[in-house]
What we know:
With about 130 residues, this protein is an all-alpha fold. It has six helices and no strands. Helix 4 runs antiparallel to helix 6. The chain starts with a helix and ends with a helix.
Amino acid sequence: MTATEYKQQKAPWLAGASALLSIAVCYGTLGLIAVLSLMGVTLAVNDHIWAGAIVAFALLAVFGVALGAMKHRKVSPAFLALAGAGLVIWAMYGAEGIADLLELPSFVVELAGFSALVSAALWDWRLKR
């Protein structure tokens, strides 16, 4: 793919930006709450909306990788992104099942999901170049 074709592709940054936004919403909110708590400010965050935003950005990253897969005709990054988003969703909504099934804390599964999403976005970006 030439540089001109890459620039003409619709939203070539979508997969990477969405994966990073998903991570930022997850851990950035935790960091913000921690800093504000140290300063004496109490902030109430609705867990369902927070988890929904994380999942929405993870699914948007999968969509971005799938758009790239249609361009470069390799579906492996899309499968990796789908698996990563599945792990993130499982960590957000099935935390009790993770502890029972894998005997792992949910944050380990969440980190594995985010790692898979970022890896898929980087792999997709590399294939587009």
